[in-house]
Amino acid sequence: MFSAPPHAPLKATVRARVAGLAPADPVTRRLAVQTLINTLGNGLFMTVSAVFFTRSVGLSAVQVGLGLTIAGACGVAAGIPLGQLADRIGAKRLLIVLYLAQAVGLGCYALVGSFPAFLVVACVVTALDSGGRSVKNAMLATALPAQSRVRSRAYLRAVTNVGIGAGSALAAVALSIDTRSGYLTLIAVDAATFLATTLLLRGIPAGTPVPRSPGAPGGRRLGALRDPAFLAVTALNGVLAIQFSLIDVTVPLWVVGHTHAPAAVVSGIMITNTALVVLFQVRATRNIADPGPAARVARRAGLLLAAACAVFGLAHGVGPIPAVLILLAATVLQAVAEMLSSAAGWALSYELADPAAPGAYQGLYNTGFAAASMLAPALTTNTAIRFGLGGWLALGVLFAAAGAALVPVTRWALATRPSTTEEEEQA
């Protein structure tokens, strides 16, 4: 009598676990493939862009920084009008147009030979990118079932980290070769990913906004701009979004200039953050489907961010090994806070929005995130880097206050939603 090899059940278990990582919803699976392809290209371009502009185009670092700052402002301005346009002509249709335009815009970088030309192309590409995120979020609001939107967003964010990480790793080849043709090849690949994603979008249901409820805050014309409670939620989430600049900008500067930790630990911090988000972002969405619980999770995230800031600040003045351990501990705290605040933000942005105007609301919400991305480097470097531990603690207080404020502000927003007020009247 023969028996199955002892490792067979283990293999079956591993296969089951791997299969379980894929989302059950076919729309989410298709969006995950689309996201992976697109973010792979983004990772390629993001990694080599600064070197390309300085070494190949011939711009100075100051010109690149100024141009990207101005382009960031264009990105902030693009979210709301493009979100409102998505409500008029359809989010999926507009997203396809924006992706095609981004492919053309990226290709135009190959023609840039001066600062004015760089500024024009960067502003157009950044506006299309920021507006595209708003329109994609509006499409998700109607294409995905309400009960699975937050979980689907978590899958897509995990896939985003995988795509950008893989793209960054592949870009190292072009950086090592350091030729104009190599950089242009990566730019062409990034542009091609936008063309590929338009084909994948054809299989995504277009969805339609629900009819507008009488008495909904604002109106289709101005949407979320006439909803003060949602404006407040957006602003507070924007404050929490400042945390993304910590890992990308502030912590590397802190490690290199203010601690005795080796510079290589910066890579370890990046890898740790990415790995934690990929592995646990979906799990972090449990029980965060409704605004009330989501706001309380955001409050917890604010406290964790405050703790992470304090721990980052403690890395100053200690030996190399303690500094590395302190920095990695702070990175874990920040990553947990990042996952919780992201999940809470998705729930709040979808569940508090007027379902008749998803584009307008997601456009405003993404504008808050874009504004935080533009302002965060200056804010964090002029606190933590300039004042050391005191600056880190000030950032921590800011994060804790924003997270705590989301609880009463969310109650206010719920009290002004038409469904809430109608239910109270019927009761």
Describe the structure.
With 427 residues, this protein is mostly helical. The protein folds into 2 domains: 24-203, MFS general substrate transporter like domains (Growth Hormone, Chain: A); 224-421, Up-down Bundle (Growth Hormone, Chain: A), CATH 1.20.1250.20. It contains 15 helices and no strands. α6 runs antiparallel to α10 (265-280) and α11 (291-313) packs antiparallel against α12 (320-351).
List the helices and strands and how they pair.
Blueprint: H1 7-20, H2 26-57, H3 61-89, H4 91-108, H5 115-143, H6 149-177, H7 180-201, H8 228-241, H9 243-258, H10 265-280, H11 291-313, H12 320-351, H13 358-387, H14 389-415, H15 418-426
Helix pairs in contact: 2-6, 2-7, 3-4, 3-5, 3-13, 4-5, 4-7, 5-13, 6-10, 6-12, 8-12, 8-13, 8-14, 9-10, 9-12, 9-13, 10-12, 11-12, 11-14, 13-14
Give a quick summary of the entry.
With 427 residues, this protein is an all-alpha fold. 80% of the residues lie in helices and 0% in strands. It has 15 helices and no strands.
